[in-house]
Amino acid sequence: MVKSLSGPESSEDNIGIYAGLMVSVFTFGEFVGAPLWAQVSDRIGRKPTILIGSMGAVFSALLFGFSTSIPMVIAARACAGLLNPNLGVVQTFVGELAMGKEDEAKGFSVVPFLRGLGTIIGPVIGGYLAEPVKNYPSLFHEGTIWDKFPYLLPNLVVVVFLLSSCTLGLFCLEEVHPEFRDQVDIRWTLASRIRNIFRGKGWNTDEGRYTSLRADETDVEAPVTPASPTEALEERGVKPPSAFTRQVKLQILSMAIQGFLKVSILAIVPVFLATPSEPDQPQNPTRGSQVIRGILGIKGGFRLDTMNTSNVLLSQAVTAVIGQRRLW
Q1: Nearest CA to 73 among 26, 29, 126?
Q2: Is residue 257 included in any domain, yes or no?
Q3: Residue 72 CB neighbour total at 10 angstroms
Q4: N or C: which end of the chain has fewer CB within 10 A?
Q5: What is the pLDDT of residues 121-162, one digit of tens each?
Q6: In sequence order, what are the residues at sequence separation of 6 or more whose Cβ sits closer than 8 angstroms to the Cβ of residue 136?
Q7: What proportions of the chain, in percent to the nearest 5, are helix, strand and coil?
Q8: pLDDT digits over 250-276, tens only?
Q9: Over 50: is that where the pLDDT of 295 sits?
Q10: Lowest mean pLDDT among 181-190, 298-307, 309-318
Q11: How crowded is residue 13: how many other Cβ atoms within 10 Å of its Cβ?
Q12: Helices 152-172 and 46-65: crossing angle, nearest 10°?
């Protein structure tokens, strides 16, 4: 996509730089937006935050598909990262939805599994639907919108997935925030009634079986207990322990290193697969790049098209999902 975009910044020498920038601005946007989305979810609830993020992803995908320049692509990727609440809100949602430690462990293992499942479907959508005029000339003709925007079709398919996910979340997702959990959600009630119809229970739900408890008239006051262990320690004048213990810091460092490696691979592998086997030498090669190319004997890449590149990424994702499911 970077190679096909017009403009002086899309020359052969800069493809790797801008491809890496497209990946890094997304992750940086997630890094900046995660604390903000966490505060939003505390104020309005987990469910609305996830739905807002889904619609933000729809906007970002459309902007990405209609991009005609490198700056526009980078802006679309930055918006996708900033408007993505999944980094922290989904993990919090799973933790609050789980009923116990055992369910919590299962929930936290399902999230990366489904994310891996998405990385299986993603390369297939991107690789097989990009440049439809070139790959499927009998279905998509020159001079149409698909010719002007060759990467629009896979993004439209992604938009369909996102809108379907948003619809399911709107009607079937339950609010788990403690402060908003008891609020009546008409859409959730409607979805529950529809499910009861398919289960043969009729239109009515079980709401009518419950009645409010009679107020107990007594002069005995219940003891006031602190709302949290932290408040209990503060009342006794004891400083609460810090959450950033040595083990937590090591865990954060480990995740940071893994994230660095993941982003590096996401940026480098597709570019390497698409690079010609004997590319032209850079106009201004650095001494370091010449030494590395000489030691490793690298003369180029594999000159793979989008379909074959997606097949390689697909095999990587399948291996990751199998490992997640069977090993961990």
Answers
A1: 26
A2: no
A3: 14
A4: C
A5: 888 899 899 999 999 999 999 999 999 999 999 999 999 999
A6: none
A7: 70, 0, 30
A8: 998 998 898 888 878 877 888 888 877
A9: yes
A10: 181-190
A11: 13
A12: 170
Residue of 280, 278, 268 whose CA lies nearest to 309: 268
Residue 156 lies in a domain: yes
Question: Average pLDDT over the chain, rounded to whole?
Answer: 78
Q: Structure pTM?
A: 0.73
| Total count of domains within the chain | 1
Residues with Cβ within 8 Å of residue 308, at least 6 apart in sequence: 127, 273
Query: Average pLDDT, stretch 217-222?
Result: 51
Residue with tokens 């390369």: 123
Residue 232 region by backbone torsions, left for phi larger than 0, else alpha for psi between -120 and 50, else beta:
alpha
- Residue 310 · residue 285 · CB < 8 Å: no
Cα Rg of the chain, angstroms: 26
Longest CA–CA span in the chain (Å) reads 88
Q: Residue 46 in contact with residue 95, Cβ under 8 Å?
A: no
Quote the CA–CA distance of 323 and 118 in Å, as a whole number. Answer: 15
> Does residue 177 fall inside a structural domain?
yes
Q: Give 171-238 as a DSSP string.
A: HHPPP--TTTTTS--HHHHHHHHHHHHHTTS-S--GGGG--PPPP---SPPPPP--SSHHHHHHHTTP
In terms of residues, how long is the chain?
328
Please compute the mean of the pLDDT values over residues 220-246 and round it to a whole number.
Answer: 62
Residue 92 sits in a domain of what CATH number?
1.20.1250.20
For residue 5, the model assigns a pLDDT of 80
Rounded CA-CA distance 47/61 in Å is 21
Question: Exposure pattern of 174-194 as b/e (b: 16+ CB <10 Å)?
Answer: ebbbeeeeeeebeebeebbee
Task: Please give the pLDDT value at position 162.
Answer: 94
**Mean pLDDT score, 62-78:** 93
Phi, psi of 99 (to 5 degrees): -90, -15
- 158: containing domain: 1-97+130-205
Grouping H, G, I as helix, E, B as strand and the rest as coil, residue 49 is: helix
